[in-house]
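Researcher: Checking consistency across runs. Here is YlaH-like family protein again:
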Amino acid sequence: MDITERLSFFAALYKVHEQPEVGMWLLYLTITALSVLVYKLGFAKKLPLGKSIIIYIFLILGSTMLTFLGIFLPVAEGLVVAALILIIYKIRLWQSKKTRTEAN
């Protein structure tokens, strides 16, 4: 069995099997950026600076573990889908608030 057949989309895109160091860093940065985006779109609240820093530190540490899983499992792809769903939700929420204020 060829290992390239089992790689996830982003792992294959970044050629983790050919350039493991660069590919893993790119996969890590992708997963971290998508995790931050999903957090900001879906779960972030106004917090003091110290608490926000702690949350982002744990988010970055969690992304490290997700990167190793993301080689063969669709972790980054799932984060892309979650981000798209949350973006659509935010746009619809913004549109409904806009129509409510125009109706008043």
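Researcher: Does this match what you'd expect to see?
Model: One thing to look at in this run: The chain has one domain: 3-103.
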